[in-house]
Amino acid sequence: MADTRKAGPEEGSPLRASLGQVLRTLGDLIVLNWLCVLCALPVVTAGPALCALYYVTLKLARGEEVRTLRGFLDAFRANLKRGAALGLLVLALGAVAAGDAFFALRQEGALRVLFLTVATVVAVIALTLLCYVFPLQARFQNTWKGQVKNAFALAFCSPGRTLLLWLIALLPVAVPLFLPPVIMRMLGFVYFIAGASGPAWLASRVLWRIFRRVLPAEDGEPN
């Protein structure tokens, strides 16, 4: 007798495998999000936390095997000193940009234009470092000065993708400013489970395209 049952996704089918991969990635991002937030709470450890976050998301974006919890904690410890220095550098630049912008809004005429210009330039520098220096530190060994130099070199060599990385970095901050509170309450759950790790994973997919095109094929020892 012919089997009249409807065919469905079977064990090992591409659909089931894809769904399983999506769920595993989502689970990894939830774990990473809270690890990053907790480890960054002292502020001074925000840099190492971002290095560790990118260490794992770069592997996830490339399809490499990684143990999420162990990989994050190992990368956090490995980048504790240098990551903290880079994090404080970015925070200092952000504070200078915010201070100049605040001062500019209290001025008039040419002085306002001058301070707004300085604030914009410093903010762009800080944003570029935020997008590049922590992924570089997570993946490649170098001095902190070398990481800063390479961050600007990569940004200059890939301006289109740098703009995309800026957008990914700014979007989580900009969205609450433009959406009504009702919608933000609905999106709050997304921020709760992947507010930090989600953008880092998206950025990692862009970063690998830049790394492949500009840098040697990992001839440096990865962290």
Q: Could you tell me the strand content as a percent range?
A: under 5%
Which whole number gives the mean pLDDT? 87
Major beta sheet summary: none
Task: List the uncertain runs.
Answer: 1-11, 218-223
- Radius of gyration of CA atoms, rounded to a whole number: 21 Å
- How many domains in all? 1
Measured distance between first and last alpha carbons:
61 Å
State the helical fraction.
Answer: over 70%
Order of helices and strands: HHHHHHHHH
Given helix and strand content, the structural type is mainly alpha
How many strand units?
0
Coarse morphology: globular
| Assembly annotation | single chain
Tally of DSSP helical segments: 9
Write the layout of secondary structure elements.
Elements: H1 14-40, H2 46-62, H3 68-78, H4 80-104, H5 109-139, H6 144-157, H7 159-178, H8 181-194, H9 197-214
